[in-house]
Amino acid sequence: MASLLGEQLFEISRQGPPPPKDFFQLVNTKNEVILRSWRISLQLNCRGAPPKELRTSHLEFLHHKVLQQQIGTVFGQRILEYTISLCQGKFDYLERLPDNLMLCIMSYLKLKETTLLAQVSHRFRKLCNSEKFWEHTVRNRCAGFTSDMEGIANAMGWRKTFFTFFNTSGRKEQQQGNRTIQQLRLSVIIK
Questions:
Q1: Would you say 28 and 20 are in contact if contact means Cβ atoms under 8 Å apart?
Q2: Residues in domain F-box (predicted)?
């Protein structure tokens, strides 16, 4: 699992709170926490000033309450807590898996479970709404899908194809969906 960790574990940039409106960057590497700040000002004496940089080891950061308070003020409590957990060696390996491997793992989940997964993070929401995920879902979970429908799915989108033709609730909608699939097949055969 250690191979999933790059040299840089986390990075975020943000404009600081008013009034100064300075710009900040927080970088957490395997060994240290780096906080950079750029002074944003219209005053002549501030123009061309180099950024300030504070580097501290993980252990030092855990005891540096002033730096923690500054990071909490600029980036928020959640980012501060995440930075502290990284400094304590608590890594989220699931977030670091490549997309293709995550999509493979997600293929074993029920669709209701993927809706819950999509609420976990921005990355999981993006994966759960991706065309790759929905293509895999339609191809492997929808019994009525045929290769004739592939062109239509590519044109209208795999997610929309799933919800239009395969995700029906109730008997009446199921019958209507089956008729639509048959019409779709006929139109593909005729062309």
A1: no
A2: 91-137
Cβ neighbours of residue 164 closer than 8 Å, sequence gap 6 or more:
156, 180
Can you tell me the distance from the alpha carbon of 147 to that of 143, in angstroms, rounded to the nearest whole number?
12
- Measuring CA to CA, which residue among 46, 9, 43 is closest to residue 28? 9
Q: Which of these, 40, 69, 61, lies nearest to 52 by C-alpha position?
A: 40
pLDDT at 172: 47
Last residue of a domain, one of 64, 94, 124: 94
Q: Tell me how many domains the chain contains.
A: 2
Q: Are residues 148 and 129 in the same domain?
A: yes
The residue among 78, 10, 16 whose CA lies nearest residue 41 is: 16
Mark which of 72, 94, 116 sits at the end of a domain.
94
Structure tokens at 59: 């252990």
In the predicted model, residues of the chain with pLDDT beneath 50 are: 1-2, 170-174, 177, 188, 191
pLDDT computed for residue 187 by the predictor: 52
Q: What is the pLDDT of residue 171?
A: 40
Q: Which structure tokens are listed for 25? A: 């960057």
Q: What is the pLDDT of residue 95?
A: 73
- How far, in Å, CA of 102 to CA of 150, rounded? 24
Q: What is this structure's pTM?
A: 0.57
